[in-house]
Automatic annotation (TrEMBL):
Residues engaged in binding [4Fe-4S] cluster 1: 55, 90, 124
Organism: Eubacterium ramulus ATCC 29099
Catalytic reactions of this protein: N(6)-dimethylallyladenosine(37) in tRNA + (sulfur carrier)-SH + AH2 + 2 S-adenosyl-L-methionine = 2-methylsulfanyl-N(6)-dimethylallyladenosine(37) in tRNA + (sulfur carrier)-H + 5'-deoxyadenosine + L-methionine + A + S-adenosyl-L-homocysteine + 2 H(+)
Residues engaged in binding [4Fe-4S] cluster 2: 200, 204, 207
Official protein name in the record: tRNA-2-methylthio-N(6)-dimethylallyladenosine synthase
Location in or out of the cell: Cytoplasm
CC cofactor: [4Fe-4S] cluster
Residues annotated as domain TRAM: 419-481
Cofactor notes: Binds 2 [4Fe-4S] clusters. One cluster is coordinated with 3 cysteines and an exchangeable S-adenosyl-L-methionine.
């Protein structure tokens, strides 16, 4: 309501202010008048559809885009047959790029039928020069292209695009700017992602992120705390702190603080019940963090600790800065401090030069750590990364066999591990009505396991005790305790 009042007071006869975020509020107000004009012409409300590809970072960015579009006066629609369609793209895998090109063809069909329709592209893929050049050449019907560093400028770019009626392209190579306090629309009223930092300094040899999301920049702790306090006042009970490598949070601030210290401050926020975070690079995971997690009442007993490979030789080529022994020692330390913690991981199969011995090392770590679950990926060559230039790419059929072996091992262990909680009563955050059976609710345990149990939708957003009656491999069937 306050934001609404503020936007209504903006005097559009004046020049836009230079400072952020005031400048963007000016353009939100201006875009409103332009969209209202379109509504008049069309005789109906204007709609928008945000389609998000990729990771939690993009999901959070999309909430910001939705917030701005709502503030401008667009109404959200599930369908891409909307008046404003935006693709928030991911470029981690090369075939993700091709998917976007394919879908643009469909959008063009809609656009030909709807004179008000606008198409925008943003996200990691747009940080690549080659991609932007291709769109400029072959997809002239796209109205707006921007990147990951200037997402806060969305309202301003949208106004430019509507007023000029030609393709607007604004992609920054890097930035040290972090603009706070713009509107955003949370997907869930009871939980939210919170960016604590942007970018990555690690340059793992298979990863494109440092090239498209820039160097590490941490948000000021007071801004993070203020955002979470506002969320809590608005009904949020669980936050997921987001960063490419949260364990190096705060190093580049004027007054450096550690991630563990930030967690201790967040823990103090009254009304906040659960804290999660990702992603945690093993090389930067400190004893201080383990100690803070172990004594915390709010940090969930779940740690996602990407392994990528169990072979010290390959880890070196991957530029991961830890070896197999260091990783296993870290896991031992974590388990000694928190025996009940759930550990999950990411593993790449078929990295260039991976031998049978290397793969066996990975299997060995999987057997020793016994992950609660693991995301397993077949290595996909990503143009623009050092690994893509490496000779020795592993033949597809060999990778496929290894991948299946790994998946079987991971799934068997995960099934055994999750059954351990059967019969226990656990606190569950109720997240939704079950998608297949609407007499059931779906909720999440602190360790990130999912449980389905009978209940009414008023419970959504609450943390309640649930008895885990039966383990079905990857989820539980439960009942209210
Ligand atoms: S830590 Fe490595 S894998 Fe993760 S985002 Fe940074 S470069 Fe990519």
């Amino acid at each position: 309501m306050q934001i609404e009042h503020f936007i209504n007071q903006i005097d559009l006869t004046l020049d836009p202010p230079a400072e952020e975020p005031l400048r963007q509020y000016y353009f939100i107000a201006k875009a409103r008048t332009l969209v209202a004009q379109m509504e008049k012409e069309a005789g109906r409300k204007m709609t928008f559809c945000v389609n998000t590809f990729g990771c939690q970072m993009n999901a959070r960015d999309s909430e910001k885009l939705c917030g701005i579009l709502n503030a401008i006066g667009y109404q959200e629609s599930e369908s891409e047959d909307a008046d404003f369609v935006i693709y928030n793209t991911c470029t981690v895998r090369e075939n993700a790029n091709n998917k976007v090109y394919g879908r643009l063809g469909y959008l063009h069909g809609y656009k030909k039928k709807n004179p008000h329709m606008m198409i925008a592209l943003c996200g990691c893929m747009m940080q690549e020069e080659k991609v932007v050049a291709k769109i400029k050449q072959s997809y002239r019907f796209v109205d707006l292209i921007f990147g990951t560093h200037n997402i806060f400028k969305f309202a301003e770019l949208l106004v430019q695009s509507i007023e000029n009626n030609k393709m607007v392209v604004d992609v920054w190579e890097n930035t040290d700017q972090i603009v706070e306090q713009l509107p955003n629309e949370r997907k869930f009223r009871f939980k939210s992602g919170v960016n604590i930092m942007f970018g990555c300094n690690n340059f793992c040899s298979y990863c494109i992120v440092p090239y498209v999301r820039g160097r590490e920049r941490s948000r000021e702790p007071r801004e993070i705390i203020r955002e979470i306090e506002n969320f809590v006042a608005d009904g949020v009970v669980e936050v997921m702190l987001l960063g490419q490598n949260v364990n190096s949070y705060g190093k580049n601030l004027d007054q450096p603080i550690t991630f563990a210290q930030l967690l201790e401050q967040i823990e103090q926020i009254e009304g906040l019940e659960r804290i999660r975070f990702m992603t945690s690079h093993p090389k930067d995971l400190s004893d201080e963090l383990i100690a803070v997690m172990a004594k915390s009442k709010k940090i969930c007993r779940h740690l996602h600790l990407p392994l990528q490979s169990g072979s010290s030789r390959l880890l070196k080529i991957m530029n991961r800065h830890y070896d197999k022994e260091q990783y296993l020692t870290l896991v031992e330390k974590i388990r000694a401090a928190m025996p009940d913690i759930a550990l999950t991981t990411d593993i790449i199969v078929g990295f260039p030069g991976e031998t049978e011995e290397d793969f066996e090392e990975t299997m060995d770590v999987v057997r020793k750590v016994r992950y609660d679950s693991a995301f397993t990926f077949i290595y996909s060559k990503r143009t623009g990364t050092p690994a893509a230039k490496m000779e020795d790419q592993v033949p597809e059929d060999v990778v496929k066999v290894r991948f299946d072996r790994l998946l079987k091992e991971v799934q068997e262990i995960a099934a055994e591990k999750s059954a351990v909680l059967t019969g226990q009563i656990q606190d569950v955050l109720v997240e939704s009505v079950n998608h297949q059976d609407d007499s059931l609710l779906t909720g999440r345990l602190g360790n990130n396991s999912v449980v389905h149990f009978p209940g009414s939708r008023e419970l959504i957003g609450q943390i309640i005790p649930v008895r885990l009656d039966e383990c079905k491999g990857f989820y539980y069937i439960g009942s209210r305790a």
